[in-house]
Structures are given as structure tokens and as C-alpha cells.
Inverse folding.
């Protein structure tokens, strides 16, 4: 089992630092030109698609163009670095959780601190992973899977896209909390993981619901549980893993996408952006578009995103330390 450090002590201080404007960029008559939103992934990726969904209505609300700047590399870290290199009050970022929660433990000399150098604007969307097995696998639910794994320590395998990936860390968190030992087999792509599950070469894997769903509908795969705290709308019939077979009731492992700014951005700008993004995410059409690609619209105040960064950094940091995921 992973011993989780109390999150209360340093969360409030960290959030206060994250929301402090070190060198304010005045919001008077802002925006005065196009907004540039840096995305650390290529065009067509989920973060890029989500950023573009937000960009069009945001441009309309602000009366200025919103330009998406794709700067792929290092799991999204380069996009954050490029955003932080700007200080014009018109440069922002859309990023997944990795560059803000696990990257500092995985990448040496990353060049920024997610708490002190980033000003959270808004959580945009979340997506869980599902525990997937082939239709021939004996277990039909998570409890049976855990029981089988306890009877055969280290014999049940799972695939991921590599050491330190979201699927790898999620599987290790699941195994630790369930009190089981699983055998990790890394692959180059999720397609290889899926093919290997379907072909019986590996037993299981954590993957996006949208990746597993077509194979479930074809009768070739089963989803034993979902890692979100509540049932996920895209797969509403798949039970949450939390509370099953000894797993804690607060078990949660989600990927998320967020809108961020450089620390020092005028709080009035942060507030304006948060207000507009909240309104955009409240639109039913946007919610449906996000769900169609496997994401649930979220939103929320900047301090909620700051809290999420602190909590997930602690959570995944403990898993990384336990598994030595940063060693490779």
C-alpha cells in the first residue's frame, strides 16, 4: 500500500503562491491583441482538439483572435516552457496533467515549478481510464480480477505505453491500493497494448474508455471498472473501481486538461478568462463535443485547479517513488 502524506498542510500555501501575481500584466483594456495558446502536443491530438474547441468561442467572447501554437515534445512540457518564455499578458497554455504533476520528477532540469511559475485559470475536462481485459479473461468484474491476482502474485500482466506513463502509474496505484502484484509490460503505443490484450499476449491494461469501447461492442473485450470517482457518461454501465474489493472509497485516477497562464498574469485577466471558459464549458454543444472524444466538461475556479495540481503531484509522486518510474 502507498502511504499518502497529508494534503492539507502544504496545499493552502502552495495554492496561495500559485495565485499570487509576481509581476502583474495590467488587465486595463485587455486584450489588446490576439491571444496565443501554447499546446505541447501536435495538431489532431486530444489536447489540441480541446484547445480548438475552446478557442473559437473564447475569441468571440473576447473580441480578439485566439491562435493555437502547437509545440509538441517531452509529453507536453515544451508547450508549457514556450508559454513561460512569454510575458506579454496574451500568452497562455492548454495542457494535460503530466507537465504540471509528474514531469518535475520525471525530467531533469525541467526549468519551471508548477506551483510557483504557473497561474491556474480553469480545469477544462477530465477523462478516466478503464481496466480492460479480453472477453476470454476469466474475471468479469474488478473484485474477481483482484481475487485472481492475489491468488497468483506477479502472474497477471498489464500493458502500458511505457515507464511513467499515465496507464503505468494508474495500474501501479491500483495494484498498491488493492494489495496485489501485477507484471508490467511496456509497449510503444496504445494500439500495441490493445492488440496484445485481444490476442491474449497480455492479460490487461488501463486505457481510455473510447479506446476500449469499440472492442467491447464487438464482443472482444470487457471493461471491469472505471477509475473516475463517479460513473463516466461515455460508459455509464461500467462500475467505478472505488470501494470495490478493498479499494478505498476515494480511489480516483483521472487524466485532465486545463487552461493555464504564466505566474504574474494580472488576477483580473485570470478572472475574465475563467468566467468566459466556465460559460463555454456550460454550453451543451461543447459538452457533447467533448464527450464524443472521451472527455467530460468540468470548469471551476482557479483555486480548484491549483488544489488539483497539488494533490495529484503528491499522489503520483508517491507512485513514482515507489515504482522508481523516473529511473528509465
Amino acid at each position: 500500500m502507498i502511504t499518502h502524506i497529508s494534503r492539507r498542510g502544504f496545499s493552502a500555501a502552495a495554492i496561495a503562491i500559485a495565485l499570487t501575481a509576481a509581476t502583474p500584466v495590467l488587465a486595463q483594456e485587455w486584450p489588446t491583441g490576439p491571444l496565443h495558446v501554447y499546446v505541447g502536443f501536435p495538431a489532431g491530438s486530444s489536447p489540441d482538439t480541446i484547445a480548438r474547441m475552446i478557442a473559437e468561442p473564447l475569441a468571440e467572447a473576447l473580441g480578439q483572435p485566439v491562435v493555437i501554437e502547437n509545440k509538441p515534445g517531452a509529453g507536453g512540457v515544451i508547450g508549457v516552457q514556450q508559454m513561460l518564455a512569454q510575458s506579454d499578458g496574451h500568452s497562455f497554455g492548454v495542457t494535460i496533467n503530466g507537465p504540471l504533476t509528474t514531469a518535475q520528477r520525471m525530467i531533469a532540469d525541467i526549468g519551471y515549478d508548477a506551483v510557483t511559475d504557473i497561474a491556474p485559470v480553469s480545469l477544462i475536462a477530465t477523462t478516466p481510464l478503464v481496466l480492460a481485459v479480453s472477453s476470454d479473461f476469466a474475471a468479469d468484474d474488478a473484485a474477481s480480477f483482484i481475487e485472481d491476482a492475489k491468488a497468483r502474485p506477479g502472474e497477471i500482466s498489464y500493458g502500458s505505453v511505457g515507464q511513467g506513463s499515465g496507464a503505468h502509474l494508474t495500474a501501479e496505484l491500483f495494484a498498491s491500493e488493492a494489495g496485489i502484484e501485477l507484471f508490467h509490460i511496456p509497449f510503444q503505443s496504445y494500439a500495441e497494448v490493445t492488440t496484445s490484450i485481444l490476442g491474449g499476449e497480455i492479460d490487461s491494461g488501463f486505457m481510455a474508455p473510447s479506446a476500449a469501447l469499440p472492442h467491447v461492442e464487438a464482443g472482444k473485450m470487457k471493461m471491469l471498472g472505471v477509475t473516475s470517482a463517479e460513473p463516466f457518461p461515455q460508459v455509464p454501465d461500467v462500475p467505478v473501481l472505488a470501494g470495490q474489493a478493498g479499494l478505498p472509497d476515494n480511489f480516483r485516477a483521472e487524466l485532465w486538461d486545463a487552461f493555464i497562464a504564466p505566474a504574474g498574469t494580472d488576477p483580473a485577466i485570470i478572472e475574465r478568462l475563467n468566467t468566459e471558459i466556465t460559460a463555454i464549458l456550460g454550453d451543451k454543444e461543447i459538452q457533447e463535443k467533448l464527450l464524443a472524444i472521451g472527455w467530460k466538461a468540468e470548469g471551476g475556479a482557479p483555486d480548484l485547479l491549483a488544489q488539483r495540481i497539488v494533490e495529484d503531484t503528491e499522489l503520483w509522486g508517491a507512485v513514482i517513488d515507489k515504482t522508481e518510474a523516473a529511473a528509465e
In short: Residues 302-323 form the longest helix (22 residues). Residues 8-127+254-327 form a domain with the D-Maltodextrin-Binding Protein; domain 2 fold (CATH 3.40.190.150). The mean pLDDT is 90.
